[in-house]
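Quick one, T. Sequence first:
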Amino acid sequence: MIARILVALDESPRAPLVFHRAAGLAEAFGAELILFRAIDVPPEFPAAGAAGQADELGPHMERAAREALLTYARERPDLTGRVLVHANASAHESILRAARENDVALIVVGSHGYHGLDRILGTTAGMVANLADRDVFVVHARTARSTGSDLDPPDV
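Structure tokens:
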């Protein structure tokens, strides 16, 4: 039984498709939908402490990520149970940790369809799919017209 689904959402143009696909799965299974985003403060941004003031970048990024997830949650309040933001770890590690900590049965991630070096080194979706100890549903960029699935969202 699938009681909880974690959907990993980033800021890519495909995020709405990933969200709608995960919402369709949650609705079909009667599952709680956990919205998740991993953030990382880029190392090239020095801490503001060197200038004698508090560093606001990390908290700002967390607030922005949480607000973006809440925007999705407002679309489907009937399904969304929690909004989680994890900071300061690689995206795939954060997704896997959140899945374990929240005892989800299914992780939904989007595939960016990278080529070249990313195919060799791996993408977040690939790392999650290969390292997860639970099922992973990878959403590829398709429209409802191309698949005809009941789980497809309206054109986004």
